[in-house]
Write a structure and sequence with these properties.
Blueprint lengths: L1 E3 L2 H12 L4 E10 L2 E11 H7 L2 E5 L8 H10 L1 E2 L2 E8 L4 E5 L6 E2 L3 H11 L5 E4 L2
Parallel strand pairs: 1-3, 4-6
Antiparallel strand pairs: 2-3, 4-9, 5-8, 6-7
Helix pairs in contact: 3-4
């Protein structure tokens, strides 16, 4: 995906863009002739976003149930203060249910944690970071 940043936005976010650390980029998506572009209007250091995260939601309906033990093992390897929730989809009822267990404890979301997720699953599309 191509990122397009105009001079006024570049001047505003130059320090974050020149830094070698990962960033979260926001903007509007434009698709023309099968090519996607993001018109950048915000840039935030990923580390700052992770510090503000209060809850991590795992969308379990996007994982194969045989993968659940690997997920829980990784969570236990990274204890921390970010609350965990698990969302399941109940197709028969056309509903999604959010489960917020107390006994699971929290998780420390960090680069190591995300690298573990990526190495175990090869993707992160089943995770959602929430500020509340």
């Amino acid at each position: 995906c191509e990122l397009v940043i105009f001079p006024d936005s570049y001047a505003k976010f130059e320090m974050q863009l020149r830094d070698e650390r990962p960033v979260l980029v926001g903007g509007s998506l434009e698709v023309e002739e099968g090519a996607a572009k993001i018109m950048v209007d915000s840039v935030s250091p990923l580390e700052d976003i992770l510090k503000k995260t209060k809850r991590l939601v795992f969308h379990l309906h996007k994982l194969d149930p045989v993968e659940y033990p690997r997920l829980m093992s990784l969570v236990k390897e990274h204890p921390g203060t970010t609350h965990l929730s698990f969302e399941i989809e109940m197709q028969d009822l056309n509903r999604r249910v959010l489960i917020e267990p107390d006994e699971t404890g929290g998780v420390s979301i960090s680069n190591d944690f995300f690298e573990g997720i990526h190495s175990l699953f090869g993707r992160t599309d089943f995770m959602e970071l929430r500020g509340s």
